[in-house]
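Following the same procedure, sequence and fold were stored together, as reproduced here:

>
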Amino acid sequence: MHARQLGPFTVSAIGLGCMNLSHAYGLPPAPEQGERLLLAALDQGVTLFDTAALYGFGANETLVGRVLKPHRRRFTLASKGGMAGVTGEDGVLRRVIDGRPEAIRRNCEDSLRRLQTDVIDLYYLHRWDKQVPIEDSVGAMSRLVEQGKVRTLGLSEVSAATLRKAHAVHPITAVQTEYSLWTRNPEIAVLQACRELGVGFVAFSPVARGFLCDALHDVGGLDAKDIRRTMPRFEPAHYAANLKLLPGYRALAREAGCTPAQLALAWLLHKAPNIIPIPGTTRVAHLQEDLAAADLRLQPGLLARLEAHINQATVSGHRYGAQARAEVDTEEFAPT
């Protein structure tokens, strides 16, 4: 596996996003299948595993901790706080964004326990709580570093301005944001800010939540609890428009001699040396397919045609619904 630098860590050029082993895309796989996937990733040379307190309301961290604890020295462990499941007075467990220092400390302690580790290598603020100054949240996270509970800090779904404010409080190792051919928002300002500050960029949903795998052709078949049902791009009218991009994209993948998913990942790897995609999957065969993208070499002409074919002007619909858009702090291209 090719390697890239992420702050003080040397990690695999492609990491593993663990979310969908417990969360988001309908009924998660059985724990045994998740265990096989995690161990296969480790055996295939993946050395960056990404989870969060939110995923499965702690179930994902519990799975990762149980399975990978015996191999802890072999990989870089990333998790996130500031957004987690909280049980309300009515007894219902709900997702809550809370960037107050006391909440961040509590989230971290809970994550350490579930992950069965003494220290988290890279700890992200999962969402900036806009009711709390970013300096306060990052200040609390910096104290976790001082206490030896966390090695480095990251931010998720933030603007360039917020990144700069946070970095002035404590060095930020990585920004994690959605980035793919069909979500180009980081190109507005965040990628440049990362380059200037020496911050790594971790790209989640690098295959566009399955769209760029060229396998999801009927959104009507999505599970009722699949989060894509809440995303405008996957609404039938928008998705019908987006499906028209796939024949041309498929042809470019054939020209590159790879699968559509591999083309999406290779494009990201060619964009800059500080970009590390973290695709997620539940299947070992798909994992192996994804990791092979690190070996691809794409010609500049093909890259240019690829970017002209799928971009913010050719994709239909917002990436998030109105509520989710209000919760993130990223610069956004207007949708078509």
Summary: The CA atoms of residues 203 and 253 lie 20 Å apart.
